[in-house]
Amino acid sequence: MKLFFVVLVSVLALSAADPQAKKDTSKEAAGATAKATDATKSSGIPADAVKDADGDYHYTDPQGKKWIFHKTPFGVSRGEDTGERETAKATATSGAGIKATEDGDKVRFERQGPFGVWKWEKKKSELNESEKAALQNSQANTNTKTTAQQD
Questions:
Q1: Which of 7, 44, 108, 147 is 20 to 30 Å from the Cα of 122, by its Cα?
Q2: What residues have CB less than 8 Å from 117, skipping those under 6 apart?
Q3: CA angle, corner 63, sides to 58 and 68, nearest 5?
Q4: Per residue in 30-47, pLDDT tens?
């Protein structure tokens, strides 16, 4: 009995599916190429955009508005250039927000992240620019605190 219902449901499902209708491919092909050229023209990177070291393209339109174009796996992404990215990069390379403590040949770091405090440690010889800046900032803060306490 179960086998009968399985066969019946399969037959009904297959009969309900529409057979592929024959389509005029010449009209669709012409429409597809027209749509493709419109899409690339509207979402492409302008010819006079300038590429930076990060792979982004910077462009100023005739109205004076600045734009950033970025290639993604899904196409080209466009966003208004507000200057926030440069500020964020400068903050990241300056070591702001990172607490560093020396422990012999190693340095321990702490930084507040979106899910709590991030902790890591590295050898002094393996530090990157932002970690070196954080270490220098923490040493400067320690020196100012020490001199303030002596006064």
A1: 147
A2: 110, 111
A3: 20
A4: 555 444 444 444 558 898
